[in-house]
Amino acid sequence: MSWNRLRRLLTPQPLITVSADPDDPRLGDLLRSADHLEEAHGATCVVLGVPQHVGVERNGGRPGAAEGPAAIRQWLRKMAMSAMIDAVRTQHLTVIDAGDLQTEGKTLQQIHDEQHDAVQEILEHGMIPIVLGGGHDIAWPTIRAMDACSTSFGVLNIDAHADVRPLKDGGLAHSGSPFRQMLETDITHLASGAFVEFGLQHHAVAAAHVQYVRDHGHTVMMLNDIRQEGLSSSWSAVVSKLERADHWYVSLDLDGFASAFAPGVSAPSADGFAPWDIGPALRSMAARPQFTAFDVVELNPAFDVDGRTAKLAAAMIMEVIAGVASRGA
Amino acid sequence: MSWNRLRRLLTPQPLITVSADPDDPRLGDLLRSADHLEEAHGATCVVLGVPQHVGVERNGGRPGAAEGPAAIRQWLRKMAMSAMIDAVRTQHLTVIDAGDLQTEGKTLQQIHDEQHDAVQEILEHGMIPIVLGGGHDIAWPTIRAMDACSTSFGVLNIDAHADVRPLKDGGLAHSGSPFRQMLETDITHLASGAFVEFGLQHHAVAAAHVQYVRDHGHTVMMLNDIRQEGLSSSWSAVVSKLERADHWYVSLDLDGFASAFAPGVSAPSADGFAPWDIGPALRSMAARPQFTAFDVVELNPAFDVDGRTAKLAAAMIMEVIAGVASRGA
Amino acid sequence: MSWNRLRRLLTPQPLITVSADPDDPRLGDLLRSADHLEEAHGATCVVLGVPQHVGVERNGGRPGAAEGPAAIRQWLRKMAMSAMIDAVRTQHLTVIDAGDLQTEGKTLQQIHDEQHDAVQEILEHGMIPIVLGGGHDIAWPTIRAMDACSTSFGVLNIDAHADVRPLKDGGLAHSGSPFRQMLETDITHLASGAFVEFGLQHHAVAAAHVQYVRDHGHTVMMLNDIRQEGLSSSWSAVVSKLERADHWYVSLDLDGFASAFAPGVSAPSADGFAPWDIGPALRSMAARPQFTAFDVVELNPAFDVDGRTAKLAAAMIMEVIAGVASRGA
């Protein structure tokens, strides 16, 4: 298997030396470009960006998410490596920044198709795609790629919203529709009961949409129920659902966080998760070999406050990479 | 009993269709105007706004709360209904937006008298007023209306401050005085020990004011004591105090939240509650038949950040309505 | 022992009457100037400011911390006194604002030397310095003063970062170096294993720096480990480390808080502590006679949002003073 498709689809992003101090390398100093995919050792995370907000606008959201990948990268590069430097040095971990999809002048359908191809190529090599949104519509091509590469996959959506709205105008995907596409389209390898919506807020989701997910045999964990049950116990319940599948795709919509922590999103939530509710769980799940794909979506830098949300996105990605780094240990 | 007084006092606010999707109605789509008060079915919440900040300015606060009701309504209308749509459809719940008091050119005393009349009329019909502030002075006319309509009522104030300051200049009410007015004026039906101040911060309240409340036989739960005791246990203690009364009035001052969550208030607090400390308790209390009146005060949109505090206010109101909706269940 | 040195080094800051209400005194109304040091009764806290950000800029941070002391004072003066007014009235507590170090036209070395002299003079009188930063480099002169005045001291650093970076350009201190200076310079009275770094974030600290602290026999408690262990249990572990020493110096870097709560700092952290994680522990530690010195560092008002971070700094100082006030009780 060559990497021709991925390299053709993605525009490399500049790799920049961040720290000259060998005692204090940053992720940016260790990132490799897509040119080095063949040399990857150990568990390999492949970052790729999808800089568009077509699906957000189509869903009535405010534009800006197209700038998300660049804003996340700015902070991701600066992140210190204490939880993963040993894994990199012992060649148990490789982190590659494969660049951004070329979205200019393309329809959302075209962008999704190219994302599907790129993610599928990464999955076929047994590597872990970390997709930087962009709107939540980017979950759909990742789901299709999971379906193509796995005989049994589960999906966790951490979100204030259900994102199971119907397509627009007879078939146009948007940032509120990816999980309806998953449940209604010809997806064959989603494990029974292995789709979990986590953190939905009762005043941000329609009863019909909650019921829709449940009617398909999957699980909705409302934010208020999670709090009543307790975070720890709720996360255990999530994992036990995911364990019905061989491969897990975790999607993190930043609007699942309270807007105090994540002001820079398409549709901010006054209530929601704190970073400490999510980070440790991501790390713990990513340490499991079933953890196969991840994305962070809906960052809107136009509404961010001093990079707070972009840094949160980068911090959550670091939890995932730290979890992956611990697999060999 | 007719609704003439209330209809004369309030200016209707436009009811706007928010969602055209029958699967995803929003609160704004189900709100009825004051014209429909006679047709209300089941538990009925009546929203009314008091757009003024006379009492805030009199207390030395920064003006802006007069814009509070409009800002809350903007988000309240958009709220999804998953926790209450069944109750509306089965006629166990009605939500009415009765409009705003006419405050233009009136003294605070006149505004308070008219608020008292409007709230009393709502209470007399066995409906639940949800008053949108405005400054915290609006608690006083609601207390007077509770006193007129109940033989035994309790009051919960969720706040960083005690609001038991003396009146200004020989008798002028202000946003820091409502609970002193309650304790010193001829209020006859406040149940013994059924007034609870919840979340006061030691660096935001005078020792003499804490003592003042306790000397009257009521309860102050300081924020640090609540944390030491634990939220769950503290809320149980609150409810056991309120249970001394037949009817409960709950007042939510948004400055009881940490300013990370509620930046848009007259007097922000660096420390304070998180949304998850308050929302579930409001819902649980509102599910009880004793829960009779509610208000949200001190929103100052001029200092808000991207609507964060207005959305928090709307979310807390949705917790209350969700609690009321569950009564029949 | 006279106070000549301290009075010569510090510029008094204006003491302002905040409240005319005898029932509601504010800290500003009770603060005494350095002229009153001889008359101090009971436990005495001495506030002094170090308005500079030379060390922040040297460490590559964004300037602004020089305005920190003024911004903290603005809010500290307004703080209500419910937790400490009795201690002041019974002469068990005195709070003095000794003013600001004169930093204009001086090198960082000169400023540090003068801070060392001032802090040492306060410690020699058995009083508790509360130093307002400025960059975190100000920990170093306080450590030297602790070393001069105690035969056994411990240090707690609450921080996202380790601050054990090497000096710059062959010997220049900076905001990232104070604890390396402590571990490598001729400090003789730091108790074995009594230095604790609390709250470091794995993506904000180098593995080599964590190891460096541990290799010196001291303790690093990473934020994720604290969460896994639980705050309460983690604080107990901190105190048991500090108890190896007779005197404790606690340094609070505001960037240890999540930037939702502390946006106005030199280097904000998306994740981090909430106020409730830290305030009660500060109060509890300050109630112990071993609690000898405190500082709050890295406030950068240029990036603050409506005074949120400055108020948080003031609130944390009030927790410390409240703890000290309770010593006699």
Radius of gyration of chain A: 18 Å
The overall pLDDT of chain A, averaged over residues, is 96
Q: For the record, what is the CATH homologous superfamily label of chain A?
A: Ureohydrolase domain
The name of the CATH architecture of chain A is: 3-Layer(aba) Sandwich
CATH fold call of chain A: Arginase, Chain A
Largest sheet: number of strands, sense, barrel closure of chain A:
10 strands, mixed
Number of helices of chain A: 13
Structural class of chain A: alpha/beta
Query: What kind of assembly state do the chains in view correspond to?
Result: homotrimer
What distance separates the N and C termini of chain A?
A: 29 Å
Q: Biggest interface, which chains?
A: A-B, 27 and 31 residues
Task: Please provide a written account of the structure.
The structure is a homotrimer of 329-residue chains. Chain A has helices at 4-9, 27-30, 54-58, 68-76, 85-89, 108-124, 139-149, 178-184, 207-215, 223-229, 231-242, 275-286, 308-325, and strands spanning 10-11, 32-33, 43-49, 93-101, 128-132, 153-158, 190-200, 219-222, 247-253, 291-297. The first copy, chain A, has 329 residues and is of the alpha/beta class. Chain A has one domain (4-325): Ureohydrolase domain (Arginase, Chain A). In chain A, strand 7, helix 9 and strand 8 form a beta-alpha-beta unit. In chain A, helix 4 packs across helix 13 and helix 7 packs parallel to helix 8. The two termini of chain A are 29 Å apart. The relative contact order of chain A is 0.17. The mean pLDDT of chain A is 96. Chain A binds chain B through residues 165, 201-210, 224, 227-228, 258-261, 263, 268-272, 274, 303, 305, and chain B through 21, 23-25, 79-83, 85-86, 258, 260-261, 274-276, 279-280, 283, 305-309, 311-312, 314-315, 318, 322.
